[in-house]
Amino acid sequence: MTSSSHNAWTSVTARRIPPIQCLLTFEALARLRSVTQTAEELCVTPSAVSHRVKQLEQILGARLFGRADFSLTTDGSAYLAHVREGLGALQRFPGASAAPGRRRLKLAVTPTFARVILIPRLRQFTEAYPEIDIALQVSIPLLDVIGEDADLMVRFGAGHYADVEHIELARDIVTPLASPSFIREHGPFERPEDLEGMPLLRSPLEPWRTWFAATGLDMPEPNEGSQFNDIGLMCDAASASMGIALVRHKLGAPWMENGTLVRLFDVDAPSPHAHYLCWKTGIMDRWECSAFAEWLHKAMNS
User: Fold this and answer.
1) I need a labelling partner for 255 at 20 to 30 A (CA). Which of 49, 63, 68, 146 fits?
2) Residue 84's pLDDT is what?
3) pLDDT, tens digit, for every residue of 12-66?
4) What total of structural domains would you count in the chain?
5) Which of 107, 108, 115 is nearest to 145 (CA)?
6) What CATH number is associated with residue 44?
7) Is the dihedral of CA 286, 288, 290, 293 positive or negative?
8) Is residue 43 part of a domain?
9) Residue 177: what pLDDT?
10) Cα distance between residue 243 and residue 235, in whole Å
């Protein structure tokens, strides 16, 4: 190839490659589906986001987004795969270790939160960030069962964590639940006072005194009976008619929806505890950690 033909080929190739900022903006907008959030992530103005997308569409001669909700067109979806592959290749450096371009995020999560809240939503995250591999560990920090070397931790407690940075994910309300067969055998339950003498299932994660105080019931915290360090196990025990469980609405939803547990009263109380996402200082400098934190916070509050 002559020098002139080489220069001509280089010039044509360069003209066909869209500017990197257009590609980064397209990928972010396709993932976040919000001009404002894309602008915040890329530290540019919303108008710059719109301009870059229009510029990219003009270069490609195709529409990438079809509607106001920023859903992708068929061309946009196909091109997004190429863009992510290309951006992933640019992230890889010669001599890097195994699984080039992939990121691993170690997450420690409380058991029932993982099963009821996180797992049903996790596919949304893995589809948006296919290059991030999630390693999930069980953790019960309120009882000092901590996931080892986790990047991010979901804790359930009062939120006074001096050893880590944290954000509140969600609060909930609690109410007594029991199985239909237990209610038939021991009911009817018409007033909170009807709980006196009943087997109350216990957990340090959810003290009964919270609900007692909300109803004006003068009963001490139970110190006898079956005890559980996982709300899901306590729900299973209540479903098996072992007793009455004080359960948060969000975590008890699967049992209430399938009818294995039902509410005894129309009285709720705010839980004294909440779920928090926690991390050690500096962790959020890793983009995969900040991406997961942002996604989880939005998923919990949408």
Assistant:
1) 146
2) 82
3) 344 578 888 889 999 888 888 888 888 888 888 888 899 999 999 888 888 998 8
4) 3
5) 108
6) 1.10.10.10
7) negative
8) yes
9) 97
10) 10
Q: Which residue has the tokens 């070397």?
A: 149
Between CA 235 and CA 241 the distance in angstroms is: 10
Q: What is the dihedral of CA 249, 251, 253, 259, to 10 degrees?
A: -100
pLDDT at 194: 94
> In terms of domains, do 165 and 181 share one?
no
The sheet carrying 152-157 orders its strands as: 132-138, 103-109, 152-157, 274-279, 165-170
pTM for this predicted structure: 0.63
pLDDT band at 299 (very low <50, low <70, confident <90, very high): confident
Tell me the two tokens of residue 288. Answer: 């995969």
Residue whose C-alpha is closest to residue 127's, from 70, 170, 68, 81? 81
In the structure, what pLDDT confidence band is assigned to residue 97 with cuts at 50, 70 and 90?
A: very low
- Yes or no: say if 260 and 179 are a contact pair by the CB < 8 Å rule: yes
Q: Are residues 281 and 160 in the same domain?
A: yes
